[in-house]
Amino acid sequence: MLVDARMAIFCESRQFHLLVLMLFYVAWCSSKCADGWQYSENSGNCYRFFEEDSRWPMSEIMCAIRGSHHVAIHDLTENRFIQQVAAAGGHKTLWLGAAQFGSSKDYVWTDHSPFDFEHWQEGQRPAYNHGRRCTKMDVPSGKWYQSCCKVPSPFICMKKASVVKDDKELQVLTAENSLEIG
């Protein structure tokens, strides 16, 4: 009976209410991507598709504002995932994060990750072309090609997945917390 009495006191205590709220908070925080972003188990990244056509530099800025970069693709599985996301929106082309900067003929990803996978239309990297320094995906084929950076196209932003919290829900949780233990 003493154990039952102690349990009843604990269940009505502030510590119990705080523990319950913390468990709900942990479950609620288990989301890997914010609203509007799609998670990929293969890469561990979050992706957000933007349907509006934009020039390559402006779309990279729009990604940077969101703490991300244009999509960088590192294997065929990820390439297919990006292709499917773009195809679901009915789009034919899509900006990728690969570009040639300055006088370099090398392609680099805007997120500075290794350029360790390529999927060019001709089966090999195209020759250097000063007027076509950015990279697009031909969505129906999933193949990449050089493009003038000024030709508008839809784009996908990419960032590492992490635990996300919605500020609105956090305010509600804080209000409930103060009612229970305050």
Automatic annotation (TrEMBL):
Organism: Ascaris lumbricoides (Giant roundworm)
Protein name per the record: C-type lectin domain-containing protein
PROSITE patterns: C_TYPE_LECTIN_2
C-type lectin domain location: 42-158
A UniProt-annotated Pfam family: Lectin_C
UniProt keyword annotations, A-Z: Signal
Stretch forming the signal peptide: 1-31
PANTHER family membership: MANNOSE, PHOSPHOLIPASE, LECTIN RECEPTOR RELATED
Domain of life: Eukaryota
